[in-house]
Predict the structure.
Amino acid sequence: MIRIAVDAMGSDRYPVPDVAGAVIAARQINCAVLLVGDRGRIHQELRRHDLSGIRVEVIHADQVIAMDEKPAVVGKSKPGSSIHVGLDLVRSGQADAFVTAGNTGAVHAVAMLYTLRRIPGVRRPALSAIFPIFGKRLTFLDVGANADCRPEWLAQFALMGEAYASTTLNIQSPSVGLLANGEEDGKGSELIVSAGQIIRELPIRFVGNVEPRQVLEGKVDVVVTDGFTGNILVKTFEASTRYLARVIRDELRSGVFTSVGGLLARPAFERARARVNTAEIGGAPLLGVNGVVVIAHGSSDSAALANAIRQAVYAVETDALQAIQTRLALIASPAPADRSEKDE
């Protein structure tokens, strides 16, 4: 049975949605969950749930990393945190994957520098985001792990994203696009132009530059960019969907006739909201570290966290880690770690 370590102290309202999501996942999916965090608080929360017929284990961690703490500091100062302990369970083979809704930067730093380390040859792990677009799942990377990037890093992001999309997301021959301000070759910053030249030589279905318009039209499966641009893009997408939903709701409530029409159209609006709701996917993988790690939003509810666990189970079942390693091996000479990086 697949074993998923779940950070019970990760979400904004921990441990309530974290524990509830783990219980839902353990009941709906063929997996065992290891809840990591304050043993007393977790057991107190578990008493609210029916645990019959499911496998739930509690692993104590006596420290919590807050959302506003600096990754560079907590990596060393909180070795007993739920993030450290959960990732170490994966490193030691006691768990097959780690799921958290905690501090993204801390997860990235602890995984890369203190526990899982990187897949051999990986310059920088990339944080991805998965969005439902016109009935399919679109993968963005990087969306925040690396604000400043180099062209060869984006080439590795392309390989890792393509491998994940084709295996775990089950997309046949996924198309890969490089986010730019124009479709033509030569458009974009020096980083984008140089990265495009490298990616074009890779054995993947690279479609060249793509603009946000094409992304939201569902014309590409994997979108590659640097962490600064990617983070702004996905946050703008999320904010835009909430804004449009509010505008529509306000207009429907503006008069008697529109209110009646809104009631009649409510089922259609609910289906539309579900189509763009990232909670239906739950979380996205941190690609490039030597283990399966899925990160959910801090605001996730129990359903979203259960879906994040489901995403981790899919990644384990489809051996996403091996697929990424195989793709990276296509590069003849994997790059060594940057001298500026201080692995401990």
